[in-house]
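Hello,

Our lab assistant flagged a job as stuck in the queue for most of the afternoon. It eventually completed. Since we weren't sure the result was trustworthy after the delay, we are filing this so someone can double-check. Below is the sequence as submitted and the structure that was eventually returned. Let us know if re-running is recommended.
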Amino acid sequence: QVQLVESGGGLVQAGGSLRLSCAASRRAGIYSIGWFRQAPGKEREFVAAINWGSGRPMYAATSEGRFTISRDKVKITSNLQVNTLKPEDSAIFYCAVATHGGSYFQSDYDYWGQGTQVTVSS
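-- returned structure --
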């Protein structure tokens, strides 16, 4: 069992930036950490993922170079830097842990955080 807590969301103006964090309760069981987002009326969408051991990132093609994922192995935390935010980015951002593998499919992930709200105003 891995508990995840997201933080760092908030209300920002278009063009602004945020750094979202995902803190895990334990290292054991983490193969990769993924970030997803879900806007009202839309399905959950993959944003980025990172392999815990190697630090190798994976990004959605639609991220447009505005997202950077990282991990801190000491703090057992993944960060998602989101830049040049647009109103269309407004969503609840979730992080998740895959115990085996991990990609852009929701079904690859075993544990999920409660989400952190990102709201971008124009």
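-- support follow-up --
The delay was a queue issue, not a problem with the job. The result is valid. The longest strand covers residues 91-98. The mean pLDDT is 95.
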